[in-house]
Amino acid sequence: MKKINLRKISSLPPSGISEDLARSKSQEWIKKLTVIQQKLYAQRQFSVLVIIQGMDASGKDGAVKNVFSGLNPAGCRVKSFKKPTEEEEAHDFLWRIHRECPEKGMIQIFNRSQYEDILVPSVHQLADKEELLFRLKAIHHFEELLVKSNTIVLKFYLHVSEQEQRKRIDERKTDPHKRWKYQKADIIETRHRERYMEVYNDLLNNPGLVPWHVVPADKNWYKNYLILKTILDTLSPYPIHYPQGEIED
Fold first, then answer.
1. Of the candidates 66, 39, 59, which has an alpha carbon nearest to the alpha carbon of residue 239?
2. Residue 115: which of 148, 153, 63 has the closest Cα?
3. Each residue's pLDDT tens digit, 164-196
4. Coil vs helix vs strand at 45
5. How far apart are CA 162 and CA 6, in angstroms?
6. For 13, phi and psi rounded to 5 degrees?
7. d(CA 64, CA 246)
8. Which residue, among 33, 28, 36, has the nearest Cα to 240 in the 3D structure?
9. What burial class does residue 56 get, using C-beta atoms within 10 Å of its C-beta: 0-12 exposed, 13-18 middle, 19+ buried?
10. Domains located in the chain, CATH noted
11. Strand order in the sheet with 107-111
């Protein structure tokens, strides 16, 4: 497998795709995903877990809002993982993750995930190398367990440039519709961008059973397009269909 180097991967869309085409295809694919969800929910043989990671202001919330806009809320849940609560810290680090995983027939979206328990301690030196390697190994075994239990797992890293990231954070200061998102901690975390890039590079190159998908995220229209395409491409080989119920005469 070719080694990933985020510094050499563009955060912009490739030149061969237009915004109009991407938006048009995205609307078409949202409808297709809606149909798949209906079959998934009725069949209750598979579940889907979508993990979305990325720097602050990389567009995780927007991806959740737009990519999954056509889904029935009865068959879809979203969980945003923030700093662990006192109760969560009293358990092993995967406890809060496992309890949010989808049952058969459901689509679960993680806005941030178990990887925060490697990223933050790595960047801020809150755990030693041995502990971090143990956590990564545990995560790989955990994801393998999910896959063997008929959970289809997709992992996305939203790749945003430093310039675009700073622009979006600055917009949170002035745009009244985005001001609620602004936190001083965001500015502090941007100072650690290079270290976050290093840790993400390590994670992307050591994915375990489930590969990572790097999504150029400077343009939201392309980010949504590529996530939708990847989800549909991943789900297409699975025998997801309406169950054939028996009808009595």
1. 39
2. 153
3. 999 999 888 887 766 666 676 666 778 899 999
4. coil
5. 12
6. -65, 155
7. 37
8. 36
9. buried
10. 18-235 (3.40.50.300)
11. 76-80, 107-111, 47-54, 151-159, 212-216
Sequence length of the chain is 249
Single-letter amino acid, residue 169: I
Residue 223 burial (10 A CB sphere; 0-12, 13-18, 19+): buried
Number of neighbours of residue 17 by Cβ within 10 angstroms = 14
Average pLDDT over residues 89-111: 98
Tokens representing residue 5 in the block: 């180097």
Answer for the pair 96, 88: CB distance below 8 angstroms, yes or no. yes
The answer to whether 41 and 73 are in contact (CB under 8 A) is: no
120, 202, 209, 224 from 198: Cα distances, Å: 12, 6, 21, 25
Give the CA dihedral 20, 22, 24, 27, nearest 10 degrees.
-140
Closest by Cα among 40, 37, 12, 33 to 223: 12
**Are 39 and 240 a contacting pair, CB within 8 Å?**
yes
The first and second tokens of residue 68, run together, are 């999954």
For residues 106 and 39, the answer to whether their CB atoms sit within 8 Å is no
Q: What is the pTM of this model?
A: 0.94
What does each C-alpha distance from 186 to 55, 68, 165, 173 come to in angstroms? 10, 26, 10, 11
User: What one-letter code names the amino acid at 12?
Assistant: L
Q: Is 234 exposed, middle or buried (0-12, 13-18, 19+ CB in 10 A)?
A: middle
pLDDT in tens, 122-181: 999 999 999 999 999 999 999 999 999 999 999 999 999 999 999 999 888 887 766 666
